[in-house]
Amino acid sequence: MTVPFFELRGVKKHFRSKSTFAQRLLAATGQAPPPPVLRAVDGVDLSVMRGEVLGLVGESGCGKSTLARIATGISAASAGDVVYDGRPVVQLRGKERLDFLLKVQMVFQDPYASLNPRMQVHRIVGEALRVHRLLPKNEIDAAVDKALTEVGLDLAYRNRYPHQFSGGQRQRIGIARALAVNPDFLVCDEPVSALDVSIQAQVINLFMDVRERRGLTYLFVSHDLGIVRHISDRVAIMYLGRIVEIGPASAVFDKPAHPYSAALIAASPSAARRKRDFQPLKGELPSPLAPPTGCPFHPRCEHAMSKCREVRPVLQEIAPGRSAACHLHTSDNA
Amino acid sequence: MTLPLLEVRGLKTVFHDLAGAWPAVDGVDLLVHPGEILGLVGESGSGKSVTGFSLVQLIDPPGEVVSGDVLFKGEDLRSASEERLRSLRGDRIAMIFQDPLMTLNPVLSIGEQMCEAIQEHRNCSRQDALKEASRALSRVGISSPEARLKQFPHEFSGGMRQRVAIATALLNEPDLIIADEPTTALDVTIQSQILFEVQKLSRETGTAVIWITHDLAVVAELADRVAVMYAGRIVETGTVDDVLDRPRHPYTVGLLGSSAASASPGERLKQINGAAPSISARPSGCPFRPRCERALAVCEQIDPSPQILDGHGYRCHNPVPEGSAL
């Protein structure tokens, strides 16, 4: 067993709404309930091997974007550790911390919001190189051009501003910016969701080319199961802040073990199916402010047993390399 | 052959600016039969939404419908008075938009708004209207509808709001619903709930639906027929099986190939190179030519004319041979 290249250990992210002095006073004297805690990510263990693509899937509000931001160090976890190359990131200082921040890069969902509208493309892509003095000044231009060429952008556009590009080209600029600092690990948060289908295919192909050329590792966050299935080696499915199933992409998609995974896969449309009789999953995602007791999926689950209402299932191995958090797969009911 | 519910011929909608008039919809022909679900598919800027708005004459300046016929049950909507259109919209023809907050008034309760939609078109007491509204809500799967009627749009989740918008559209049992990307902003499980309701209602009440979307997979599962739009025109139309299984237009083939489901995992997707032309810089001849692998010399000069309207039609000088593998 090789050592994982990147690990999340028991990561939690809790948000508390800011309370006023009066609310705090009432809470302290027991006259009002304490402010509710939103558990966006509630105890996630995840390991990523070098060179693999791990897909992270879930619906809005399941915590997948929060998890991606924690992985890149943009947000700090409330509890748990982010482990990079065998070392917890919180212990890293100075040069080592900077090294982690540069080696782990993020590609954002919205190519309109993630590029500074007042900066020319070559300055956006070269900014990190300049700020961190990674290259001597006279070599930065060449490095920027190399990154732009790699993502398929015409060098004639290097002095343009973001608004002069289409959505797909902007996403290429975002990828070039991430690649400019020679990362090992790209965390991609819904990188093609804002793009048209024909442009999506171009960007997905670009992601796969870059990975092959540079031997990159990806954490690929998306709500689009078709894309995740296409690009991922392994896939993790999230529900209400927790991972409910993880395993090789083909195995999970062909034979999902968790009822939620099964429902999600059944609900995503496919061009191969015609005039389907839709069998919708009942109910909606519960509020993460008041998650159900026991298994968080039990109010929507057709297999729910009395145990599911009381005991929260833990993520455990159900086959080599595959885990699920569901009482249907708890062998001895211990 | 039944009489078509909606017949559109040569519809052209332009947007004016100082430099001229740019056609967002450029000669669209459509046929919708009663009870039929038509998927109108296209990417951003293809003119699919403008087509939807043009059908009910909801184009505001600087946009203008300049030519074409829109016949709804034989009545020409282009020459209809504003009064007549108002009485048709929300009654015989209903629209559902991508963002339900656009349809719902934030300062009126759901019940208030639904009653208005009923009483605008029919003489009925408020009590009866409320009863009908509550029935409509339970039809789209909203529990405790009486209590919900007293609530305001912000008290609903996104999926619930879209269901309220759909329930409102269905109040007067319209003959035609024009739905503009109604599930694009929703999660797949919520989308499948809404597709379920729409399909059920279309089957039960015989309402025809024009479902405008960028998602071919949704169309495959929901629609009877499909029309694929590119640069303001319909480039291919036919039954879902014809268009998705035996596509002839290179753009349709490219769109299908772009979807991740068409390739095995890890394989390169068959992408369409380039991007759709902007409305002010459409190429001469066939607008898809610069991105087309099958383009001939003739494609540069002559815009291919539309083929048959009902049945499998495509606009291409050099269509993909029948039966060739995708």
From TrEMBL, chain A:
Ranges of residues in domain ABC transporter: 15-265
Primary location class: membrane
Family (UniProt): Belongs to the ABC transporter superfamily.
An example Gene Ontology molecular-function term: ATP binding
InterPro entries, per the entry: AAA+_ATPase (IPR003593), ABC_transp_ATP-bind (IPR050319), ABC_transporter-like_ATP-bd (IPR003439), ABC_transporter-like_CS (IPR017871), Oligopep_ABC_C (IPR013563), P-loop_NTPase (IPR027417)
Pfam family, one: ABC_tran
Membrane topology summary: Peripheral membrane protein
Alphabetized UniProt keyword annotations: ATP-binding, Nucleotide-binding, Transport
Subcellular location: Cell inner membrane
Name this protein carries in UniProt: ABC transporter ATP-binding protein
UniProtKB/TrEMBL annotation, chain B:
Keywords carried by this UniProt record: ATP-binding, Cell inner membrane, Cell membrane, Membrane, Nucleotide-binding, Translocase, Transport
InterPro entries: AAA+_ATPase, ABC_Ni/Peptide_Import, ABC_transporter-like_ATP-bd, ABC_transporter-like_CS, Oligopep_ABC_C, P-loop_NTPase
Coarse class of the protein's main subcellular location: membrane
UniProt xrefs under PROSITE patterns: ABC_TRANSPORTER_1 (PS00211), ABC_TRANSPORTER_2 (PS50893)
Record CDD domains: ABC_NikE_OppD_transporters
Subcellular location: Cell inner membrane
Pfam families in the cross-refs: ABC_tran (PF00005), oligo_HPY (PF08352)
Family in the record: Belongs to the ABC transporter superfamily.
Name by which UniProt lists this protein: ABC transporter ATP-binding protein
Organism for this UniProt entry: Microvirga terricola
Source taxonomy: Bacteria, Pseudomonadati, Pseudomonadota, Alphaproteobacteria, Hyphomicrobiales
